[in-house]
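Class, discuss our next protein.
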Amino acid sequence: MTCIVAIAKDGVVYMGADSAGSDEDTGVIAPYVIPKVFKRNGYVIGYAGSFRFGKLLQYIFDLPQCPANVNTSEKLDEFMNKVLMQSIKKQAKELDLDKEEMDFDALIGLKGHVFEVSNDWCAIEASMPYNVCGSGAKYALGSLHTTQVWKEPTKRINVALSAASEYDLYVAPPFNIISG
């Protein structure tokens, strides 16, 4: 349970996340030190759901380098689904992850584009230049819609995360924002 917010602007992906970790069984919510957004091998990644899967993305999985000639929406869509998702799916299968470890959503920024991915192994780019995931997504999405005319992506992300933390019990500051 969390909120990840990403904006693509002028060839750069800006991404932010809250710091809450929660246990639905006990209701315990606590802030974590390690951000749920990171950069790795040309990707900007934020994850929601399974912390285990997020850490596999951050440290363990081999994330294939995107070739320089992959530079259009169509080519990026093909690369994301044919190469990256298949690679991650294969590596996850080799680790024999259980259902709980596979319960994730993520946003992946690549070459100024934002893709939403989940455990169905499909990467989708939304028609708008922003996207969200996690339990606070609906609040953040509404905020991003109403701030479309704002010029500063990091300010929009901070306001979207603040809105999500105001209305979703499982979203809490501090917020971490990165770009790449």
User: Anything to note?
Assistant: The longest strand covers residues 43-49. Residues 39 and 136 are 22 Å apart (CA to CA). Residues 4-170 form a domain with the Glutamine Phosphoribosylpyrophosphate, subunit 1, domain 1 fold (CATH 3.60.20.10). The radius of gyration is 15 Å.
